[in-house]
Amino acid sequence: MHIIITILIGALAGFLAGKIMKGSGFGFWVNLIVGIVGGFIGGNVLSWVGINWGGLVGQIVTAVIGAVILLWLISLIKKK
To answer: Could you tell me which residue, 26 or 36, shows the higher pLDDT?
Structure first.
């Protein structure tokens, strides 16, 4: 059950980050990858500054923040 929740959170976070950064999503699979990697990045970055949100909403917000950071870093690399 945990893996299903992780997949759903990752897909939602990737979709939301795509909307925030580019105005559109990237498709289910790319959104899923961006969201899951974003959850990892967001969890690490927020823990460095002492923020730790619990619960489903906290996990989604953390993953979205991390996914936005990931997409921002990708956009910096693509510009060069």
So the answer is: 36
